[in-house]
Specification:
Blueprint (H helix, E strand, L loop, with lengths): L5 E3 L3 H10 L3 H5 L17 H5 L3 H8 L4 E7 L5 E9 L4 E8 L9 H16 L4 E7 L3 H9 L3 E10 L5 E10 H14 L16 H12 L7 H9 L4 H23 L5 H4 L6
Parallel strand pairs: 4-5
Antiparallel strand pairs: 1-2, 2-3, 3-4, 5-7, 6-7
Helix pairs in contact: 9-10
């Protein structure tokens, strides 16, 4: 099960933590990194500058309708990262996710955040597609988005390093039609409830066990009332259903008894078998 995350408006304390997180070059390269070949540059704003920026500039940056920036909080209400949606004015948006708490990497927080953003893109904003640009050496992020059904569309060179080699990113994308079809499929797969049957010998407290299991899993426990429901469906009386059950059980009891126990014991155990 994925962890629960909440997206919140960015605070100055959040920006302070972002600035501190980006001092770690390994961390910065996992999201924003390589945009200037090694510099821990932040997309959209300079954290150190924004800490001292006037409220008017703060509102300009964090109120921009074409760049939606959110702080990511975990189930304990701790700030653990930041995410962005950069709208391209062509019916799509670029998605970015940073989990700044390295001790929380590989625990599902990144994929949980991405899923919340995808829901926002396709249901709230009604956009056509969402895409990500990931440096090819970030194999964890590549794997994450492929699990979310993103497909690679292209590659692009981010920059050249001092040794002449290039840092290349893969551009992965998912379209609204694919996302909505996946959501519909998931809903259909959960539109039923499993049935658990409990049987037992007389005096085995099987009814009590059934009630307790129903309470634990949050399901309805059905006992004698299932006979009434069955009678109504078959246009029969509860007595007729009960008589049928006894006859059916008796046949199988004799078969089982002849296989599993001596013949002289079968009568004593006849009432114990339940179909």
């Amino acid at each position: 099960m994925l962890p629960e995350i909440t997206l919140k408006d960015v605070s100055r304390d959040d920006v302070d933590r972002i600035a501190w997180w980006l001092e770690d070059t390994e961390l910065s390269s996992k999201w924003f990194g390589h945009y200037r070949c090694g510099d821990p540059i932040h997309r959209g704003y300079d954290p150190h500058h924004m800490l001292e920026a006037p409220q008017s500039e703060w509102q300009h940056v964090f109120g921009d309708s074409s760049r939606l920036i959110y702080s990511v909080y975990d189930e304990n209400n701790d700030h653990i990262g930041e995410c962005q949606l950069i709208l391209d004015n062509l019916g799509g948006a670029e998605l970015s996710v940073l989990i700044g708490r390295k001790n929380l990497w590989h625990r599902g927080y990144g994929i949980a955040t991405a899923m919340v953003l995808m829901e926002k893109v396709f249901t709230e904003l009604s956009l056509d597609r969402v895409w990500v640009s990931i440096p090819q050496d970030n194999t964890a992020a590549m794997s994450l988005f492929k699990k979310l059904s993103f497909v690679q569309k292209s590659t692009r060179e981010l920059c050249k390093q001092s040794d002449g080699t290039s840092i290349v990113a893969s551009v992965l994308e998912i379209e609204a039609s694919v996302y909505l079809a996946l959501q519909t499929s998931k809903k259909r797969s959960t539109d039923f409830e499993p049935v658990v049957t409990i049987t037992g010998m007389p005096g085995s407290a099987s009814d009590e066990v059934g009630r307790e299991i129903g309470r634990i899993v949050g399901s309805k426990f059905v006992s004698e009332d299932i006979r009434d429901d069955l009678a109504q469906r078959l246009n029969s009386s509860p007595k007729e259903i009960e008589s049928f059950e006894r006859g059916f059980r008796s046949v199988w009891t004799r078969i089982l008894a002849s296989i599993a126990m001596p013949t002289e014991w079968s009568t004593a155990y006849d009432s114990g078998y339940q179909a």
